[in-house]
Design goal:
about 325 residues, mainly alpha, Hypothetical protein af1432, 16 helices, about 0% strand
Length: about 325
């Protein structure tokens, strides 16, 4: 044992304690580019650390989750959403004896490419480019954009980031855990935020009785059901009853909050603002700065503008728009 480095001890422990369906760090399909192994951390621990320390991760704190510019300190942002996904996913993964480090790395990186102003920003870029998905943009961030060369993450983490959406199927159970955890997190914390904002005053009675009357009860019901439904199986699932109630609650949120809420009325302004910035940069790419301009030759103008817009925080987009389009006051005394 003394001849082994700490990483090798961790890798050995994984073979002894993890489920046969878990991905072991020593089994990873590898990185985009060769990298000398770390003596302390497994490859998935290293990926988690690389994501936490990158600039794209820090920018999530100023990106909208659902409510644009809320007047309150307790509404979720894209960063707090990411942390809640990671916490839920880790609990599930640990309970099922899956690789918690891989799960956490995927969860922390899954929204790195999300646009400013939540899904309003995503709709704008979809409209202007013909194709934009934040999951694909998140993969693009970790493979190419961050640090100019990407984060050089393992295949398993990149696959989980790309396939964290409901309609996708990751290659690993850890990726599937994040796929479910993302839904559990956003449905429940968006209910919590909508109640706080007075956008809704209750959830459907059937959902409350079947899932729980409080935020904590509902999350606990969903997580516990997933663990019980998936234990000892090569798949991740919910029971039919809980899955149906979860989908009913999700649809309720789409009808009452995501698509028809008065709290979303500012989205039209945000969309118009991003559209104007996009069109401006297409005509005057030099305004994006030298780093972005250098990427045009490699990726093309439209892709470079898309990358630039998607990487903005809400407040940076507003400040830039104000700087470009809003006249400054001029006084002479």
């Amino acid at each position: 044992m003394n001849d082994l480095c700490f990483r090798e001890i961790s890798e050995k422990n994984e073979w002894e304690r993890l489920s046969p369906y878990a991905v072991k760090a020593a089994q990873s399909k590898g990185r985009q580019r060769l990298l000398e192994p770390c003596p302390l951390r497994t490859v998935f621990q290293r990926d988690r650390d690389r994501i936490i320390h990158c600039k794209s991760f820090r920018r999530l704190k100023h990106k909208t989750q659902v409510f644009l510019s809320p007047e309150g300190d307790h509404y979720r942002t894209r960063l707090t959403h990411t942390l809640e996904v990671a916490q839920i996913a880790r609990t599930i993964s640990r309970s099922l004896a899956l690789n918690e480090d891989l799960t956490e790395a995927i969860a922390l990186g899954h929204d790195l490419g999300h646009t400013p102003f939540g899904h309003a920003g995503e709709r704008v870029l979809q409209k202007l480019t013909g194709h934009f998905k934040h999951s694909e943009q998140s993969l693009r961030v970790v493979e190419l954009l961050e640090n100019g060369t990407g984060l050089n993450l393992t295949y398993e983490v990149r696959d989980g980031i790309l396939n964290h959406r409901k309609s996708s199927t990751p290659d690993t159970l850890e990726g599937m855990v994040v796929n479910f955890a993302d839904r559990i997190a956003y449905i429940n914390h968006d209910v919590d935020d909508a109640l706080r904002a007075g956008v809704i005053d209750s959830i459907p009675k059937e959902c409350a009785e079947g899932l729980g009357h409080t935020h904590g009860e509902r999350i606990n019901t969903m997580i516990t059901d997933m663990v019980l439904s998936s234990a000892g199986k090569p798949e991740i699932s919910m029971s039919e009853t809980v899955a149906e109630l979860t989908e009913k609650l999700r649809q309720f949120m789409f009808d009452r909050v995501y698509l028809g809420s008065v709290a979303k009325k500012e989205e039209t302004k945000a969309e118009s603002m991003l559209e104007m910035l996009f069109e401006l940069f297409m005509k005057s790419p030099d305004m994006m700065g030298e780093e972005a301009v250098r990427r045009i030759e490699a990726y093309g103008l439209q892709t470079t503008v898309t990358d630039y817009i998607a990487g903005m925080t809400d407040r940076y987009a507003v400040a830039l728009f104000r700087e470009i389009y809003i006249p400054k006051g001029w006084y002479k005394y």
